[in-house]
Inverse folding.
């Protein structure tokens, strides 16, 4: 019994040992298996791991702010929630859609469809408002996600909207300063390695770079938001009052070239850029060109003064308001007999301006026009700036020359006009306009600073002062710009009432005008050059009446904003009526030597050598068969003329804009066929006929 | 007289020896290695549970501490149970074996009482006890070991016979399997069957019976698997995990990727990626995945070493106790825990198909921990080789009872004598 007992005990012991050995072996197998997985299979499994968890995100650090010259924020970047969903994790899409629809203001059915897909990720609303984000958070649904994204915000709404431009969904500047300064404003892009969890969420557990350092630079503009505000509201007021199509205003610091305000109506709020038509995004003071009209006489007179062709006292025969040039006539709004040069400016005589221009001739005038910066971009740097169109003088027909003398037949942007005006205000020095005051890094270091850039001297200091004196007559009682006068400051400026080409007929339309006022204050010690243009006003179209009040409003507020005190009465130009007589600015003989030669160079023609004597009216034409050449190219015109058996005399280039004899008249009475050609651009349609200077 | 004296002498010697033995037993200690391994595994488990679940719990429950804070009461309860059991003589399990069996079976049925039983993930396995959800199946495993130890120890030599050695035990498994398979819980049923087989095997049954038994078991398992599509899926997923990465093998492939990609040195504690939802139930069945991922081969070696210590000490306790029941009980409990650990590690490393098997002492959960600690308590008690005072005092109790009986008899006789005397007198 004891024997079998111990035998059993031995069996039991053996078998127990066997079981335990088996288990121990099992444990060793496990260790071996882990070793195998972590060595032999490591690479393969690590790759699988990376595929499922490794995500790299290409991110951009925050975009820099845009400030006005005083540090007021015009464009900032804020973090807003974007709402996303993981549709594959939603059990009841309909119920979720039901509760989400009112928050996101979306259609329930539409939302249900979106949430019913088996995609792992779908955006529901990018860049939602914080309120929407909070409401979504309160739903506390595991399949909903809020992702913070940077959004560009323009705190002042439509203030300088077109200038600032806007950014796209990816925060890239698309228009305006946002686009121009993209490289400065954009935050540096960086790669961030994240871990993706099984539900698709990204976890950034490997550290972020110092985002503050990577943020974009801050751009301070030269704009003064207070002046900008006044400019916009003053424009708005005039545009509404005269039911105009649009309005444009530019305010420039004459001493530095800083653009203090650049406005156009209708205004534009970049926060909601999608709700606007893309044509409203345009910063029209630089992208649109106009025929400047009588404002241009300021520069013509300046050129003639500089050339010593006239003095302000030179009497000019204004032909009682009508002058025939070839088959065309030019008119004055009010007929004058003889005016002195200053009065030509003050009363805006077209004929007077032409007569003054004749004294320096086409080429000289052209050189001055170019020297004043017309016909080329100002170098402001904003995209879409137009150079304007100034044709070379060898293409000018006599009537074109006359037109140019009063600002028709050439085009310019409001900015160009303002800059040229500010050159007169700045002792004849033409500065490059600038919009960027400075660029600072996020740490505050200044990396770029705008400084006044002299482009050239256009006229001498003396000429500038003389023109200023003439311009300061404009707002006076007998001038055209009385509405622009300020009580405590002297305003120097010029009205403009430009005819506009109807793009359909390509002729000056008697109902389409650009009313403008361009000038500077205070006349004695100028600070601001201001231009206001009202496009296609109804009822009345005189620049002084339509644009003058806006100029006054802007000037008044700009002076107040910049703290420019009124001048002592003794320092001001004595321009009261009695004093005006004795301050006749010398006599006709008092012509000084030219102190400055325009940089355009070239032969200096003697005054009045060119373009004279062609003002005699042509022989009256009799009825006959001269065809209408207008609108033809030179080649077409020549072919047509050949049929008549005549070789025409051709002036200019481009397409025919006028002809002598007039269509339908007989060629027999006239010895030669004269054709005047001018080029045409799609940007600013050129008229098929010259301007007469007034409404007919 | 001589015999009387001898009797007295032997009696005194006997009682002296008993007392001495009692004293020795009182002075002997619990197995420190076993206790140490157990506590280390539990502490290790808590750390890994926190690491495994902090992210998910912070996200879903708003508290990254949830795993630890919910597990600590269960740990305390388990340790208390362990201490109580360790101070209860293991023979009581033999004495109360039928109560235990009845109670376990009752609890397995209670699961089906509506309002008491709880259904989670499609299985009716739990009873809500407030502190935690109790899983009677865990109790069933321990009960199985106790009943088997009792049975094979009692049968001794008879275990070699088919009728005594095999049949009653197969019937026992079938009896328990009924409610378990209704839950359904094939895993526990399989463990019960395997434990039964192991106990039958070590108690000296013939190999051919065992082979037959194994054959029948494998056959039944095949039927059980083929009967349920999800079980077939699990097996095919096991055989070809990478083709079922997105569905049936999601968990196991996630585990393999987590373990393998970490390399021998691991990612470092807390740095694991499997916890980001790639290995579901990481804090529970797949806690070893996290150990291997974060602590590398060293971590797994540490876990395995602790279980090897456990096996060594448990087996040593079984060998050192002279009473067959104690031997079988200690061996059974050691094997039960070691086998579950080993099976769990096999599943986690892709060596066996996925089953709902926890890693004892380390995985999160109440029932498994509680029953494992009760088992450890029994082992500790056996390790002390305590004197069974109740058993030793049995003759004395019987003598006392006998004495009392005789006394009563005598009194009755005296009374009768007195009465008859009075009557006579």
């Amino acid at each position: 019994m004891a024997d079998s007992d111990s035998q059993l005990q031995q069996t039991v012991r053996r078998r127990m040992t066997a079981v335990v050995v088996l288990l121990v072996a099992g444990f060793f197998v496990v260790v071996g298996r882990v070793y195998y997985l972590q060595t032999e299979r490591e690479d393969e499994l690590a790759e699988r791991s990376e595929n499922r968890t490794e995500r790299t995100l290409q991110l951009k650090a925050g975009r820099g702010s845009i400030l006005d010259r005083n540090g007021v924020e015009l464009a900032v970047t804020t973090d807003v929630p974007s709402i996303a969903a993981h549709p594959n994790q939603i059990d009841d899409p309909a119920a979720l859609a039901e509760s989400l629809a009112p928050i996101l203001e979306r259609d329930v059915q539409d939302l249900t469809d979106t949430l019913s897909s088996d995609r792992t990720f779908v955006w529901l609303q990018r860049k939602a408002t914080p309120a929407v984000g909070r409401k979504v958070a309160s739903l506390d649904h595991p399949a909903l996600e809020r992702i913070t994204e940077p959004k560009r915000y323009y705190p002042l709404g439509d203030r300088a909207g077109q200038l600032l431009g806007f950014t796209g969904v990816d925060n890239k500047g698309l228009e305006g300063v946002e686009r121009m300064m993209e490289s400065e404003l954009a935050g540096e892009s960086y790669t961030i390695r994240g871990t993706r969890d099984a539900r698709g969420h990204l976890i950034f557990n490997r550290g972020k770079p110092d985002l503050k350092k990577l943020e974009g630079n801050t751009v301070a503009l030269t704009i003064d938001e207070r002046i900008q505000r006044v400019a916009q509201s003053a424009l708005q007021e005039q545009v509404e009052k005269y039911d105009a199509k649009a309005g444009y205003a530019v305010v420039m610091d004459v001493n530095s070239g800083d653009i203090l305000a650049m406005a156009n109506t209708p205004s534009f709020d970049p926060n909601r850029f999608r709700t606007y038509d893309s044509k409203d995004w345009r910063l029209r003071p630089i992208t649109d060109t106009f025929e400047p009209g009588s404002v241009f006489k300021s520069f013509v007179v300046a050129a003639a003064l500089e050339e010593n062709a006239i003095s302000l006292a030179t009497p000019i025969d204004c032909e009682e308001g009508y002058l025939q040039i070839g088959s065309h006539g030019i008119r004055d709004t009010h007929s004058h007999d003889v005016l002195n040069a200053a009065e030509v400016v003050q009363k805006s005589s077209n004929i007077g301006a032409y007569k003054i221009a004749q004294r320096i001739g086409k080429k000289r005038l052209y050189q001055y026009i170019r020297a004043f910066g017309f016909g080329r971009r100002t170098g402001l740097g904003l995209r879409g700036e137009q150079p304007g169109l100034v044709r070379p003088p060898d293409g000018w027909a006599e009537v074109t020359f006359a037109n140019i003398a009063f600002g028709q037949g050439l085009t310019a942007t409001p900015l160009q006009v303002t800059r040229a005006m500010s050159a007169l205000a700045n002792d004849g020095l033409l500065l490059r306009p600038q919009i960027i005051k400075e660029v600072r890094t996020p740490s505050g270091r200044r990396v770029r600073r705008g400084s006044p850039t002299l482009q050239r001297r256009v006229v001498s200091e003396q000429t500038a002062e003389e023109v200023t004196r003439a311009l300061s007559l404009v707002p006076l009682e007998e001038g055209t710009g009385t509405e622009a006068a300020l009580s405590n400051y002297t305003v120097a400026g010029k009205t403009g009432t430009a005819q506009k080409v109807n793009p359909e007929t390509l002729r000056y339309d008697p109902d389409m005008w650009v009313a403008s006022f361009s000038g500077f204050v205070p006349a004695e010690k100028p600070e601001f050059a201001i231009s206001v243009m009202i496009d296609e006003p109804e009822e009345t179209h005189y620049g002084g009446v339509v644009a003058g009040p806006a100029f006054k409003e802007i000037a008044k507020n700009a002076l107040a904003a910049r703290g420019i005190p009124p001048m002592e009465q003794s320092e001001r130009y004595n321009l009261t009526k009695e004093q005006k007589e004795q301050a006749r600015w010398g006599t006709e003989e008092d012509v000084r030597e030219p102190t400055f030669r325009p940089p355009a160079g070239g032969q200096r023609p003697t005054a009045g050598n060119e373009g004279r004597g062609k003002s005699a009216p042509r022989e009256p034409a009799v009825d006959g068969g001269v065809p209408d050449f207008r609108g033809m190219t030179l080649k077409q015109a020549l072919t047509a003329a050949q049929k008549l058996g005549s070789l025409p005399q051709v002036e200019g280039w481009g397409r025919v804009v006028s002809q002598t004899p007039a269509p339908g008249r007989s060629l027999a009475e006239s010895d030669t066929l004269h054709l005047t050609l001018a080029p045409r651009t799609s940007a600013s349609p050129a008229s098929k006929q010259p301007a007469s200077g007034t409404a007919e | 007289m001589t015999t009387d004296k001898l009797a007295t002498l032997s009696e005194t010697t006997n009682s002296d020896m008993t007392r001495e033995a009692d004293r020795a037993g009182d002075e002997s200690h619990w197995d420190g290695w076993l206790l140490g391994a157990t506590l280390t595994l539990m502490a290790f488990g808590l750390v890994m549970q926190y690491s495994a679940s902090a992210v998910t719990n912070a996200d879903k429950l708003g508290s990254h501490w949830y795993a630890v804070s919910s597990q600590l009461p269960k740990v305390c309860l388990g340790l208390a149970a362990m201490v109580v059991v360790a101070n209860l003589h293991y023979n009581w399990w033999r004495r109360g074996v039928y109560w235990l069996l009845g109670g376990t079976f009752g609890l397995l049925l209670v699961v089906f009482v509506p309002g008491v039983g709880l259904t989670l993930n499609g299985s009716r396995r739990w009873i809500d006890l407030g502190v935690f959800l109790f899983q009677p199946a865990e109790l069933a495993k321990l009960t199985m070991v106790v009943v088997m130890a009792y049975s094979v120890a009692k049968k001794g030599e008879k275990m070699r016979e088919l009728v005594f050695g095999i049949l009653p035990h197969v019937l026992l498994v079938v009896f328990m399997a009924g409610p378990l398979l209704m839950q359904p819980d094939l895993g526990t049923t399989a463990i019960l069957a395997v434990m039964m087989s192991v106990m039958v095997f070590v108690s000296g049954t013939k190999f051919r019976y065992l082979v037959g038994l194994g054959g029948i078991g494998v056959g039944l398992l095949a039927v059980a698997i083929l009967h349920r599509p999800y079980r077939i899926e699990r097996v095919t997923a096991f055989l070809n995990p990478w083709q079922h990465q997105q569905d049936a093998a999601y968990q196991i492939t996630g585990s393999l990727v987590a373990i393998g990609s970490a390399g021998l040195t691991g990612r470092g504690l807390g740095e694991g990626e499997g916890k980001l939802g790639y290995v579901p139930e990481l804090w529970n069945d797949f806690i070893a995945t996290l150990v291997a991922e974060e602590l590398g081969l060293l971590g797994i070696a540490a876990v395995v070493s602790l279980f090897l210590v456990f096996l060594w000490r448990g087996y040593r306790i079984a060998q050192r106790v002279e009473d067959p029941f104690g031997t079988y009980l200690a061996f059974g409990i050691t094997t039960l825990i070691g086998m579950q650990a080993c099976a769990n590690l096999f599943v986690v490393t892709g060596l066996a198909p996925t089953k709902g098997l926890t890693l004892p002492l380390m995985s999160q959960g109440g029932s498994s921990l509680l029953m494992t600690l009760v088992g450890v308590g029994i082992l500790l008690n056996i390790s002390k080789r305590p004197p069974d005072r109740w058993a030793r005092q049995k003759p004395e109790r019987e003598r006392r009872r006998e004495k009392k009986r005789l006394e009563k008899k005598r009194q009755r006789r005296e009374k009768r004598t007195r009465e008859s005397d009075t009557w006579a007198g």
Q: What stands out?
A: The longest strand of chain A covers residues 507-521. Chain A touches chain B at residues 4, 8, 11-13, 15-17, 19-20, 23-24, 26-31, 33-35, 37-39, 41-42, 44-46, 48-50, 52-53, 142, 195-199, 203 (CB under 8 Å).
